[in-house]
Design brief:
The protein is mainly α. Helix content is about 60%, strand content about 0%. The longest helix has about 30 residues. It is found in: Nucleus. Keywords: Nucleus.
Length: about 160
């Protein structure tokens, strides 16, 4: 396994890697009390730290995903491998949210392919899509727990319940 450098993940070089400065500045301001000001140099330093942290996190998760994939004698890292890697690395609290983001991306990708060579012509209603998403959540939970159903956390957003 080759250890990836931040430049392998987010750009040609570390200087090419960046996060949207306006967005990061807004996040920094939202996290602080309204009467606290942050010098521009300090903002730049925080943003640089975020770039490094994101690159390190991606490196960590991708390396563990590769290990999970290898243990299963697979050659391609699948979304399930990433979810298992998050669990192994102690990020279980984020698995459902990450899976939901993946499913949303998948649904949006399917929408963009409608009418193309990948479309089967069938369209889902919003309710059908939500029901299918919940079914896939349950399947993913079962796979993550070796086939055992997992109780849903009680602090889950009620809007996600079906």
């Amino acid at each position: 396994i080759r250890i990836m450098e931040p430049m392998d993940i987010v750009g040609k070089s570390k200087e090419d890697a960046s996060l949207p400065k306006a967005t990061m500045t807004k996040i920094i301001k939202e996290m602080l009390p309204p009467d606290v000001r942050v010098a521009r140099d300090a903002q730049d330093l925080l943003i640089e730290c975020c770039v490094d942290a994101v690159a390190e996190f991606i490196n960590l998760v991708s390396s563990e995903s590769n290990e999970v994939c290898s243990r299963e004698d697979k050659r391609t890292i699948a979304p399930e491998h990433v979810l298992k890697a998050l669990h192994v690395l102690g990020f279980s609290d984020y698995i459902e949210e990450v899976y939901a983001a993946y499913e949303q991306h998948r649904l949006e990708t399917m929408d963009s392919l409608k009418g193309g060579k990948w479309s089967n012509g069938a369209e889902m209603t919003e309710e059908e899509a939500a029901a299918e998403q919940q079914r896939m959540f349950a399947e993913a939970r079962a796979r993550m727990n070796g086939g055992l159903p997992t109780p849903k956390p009680s602090n889950q957003d009620p809007s996600l319940e079906s």
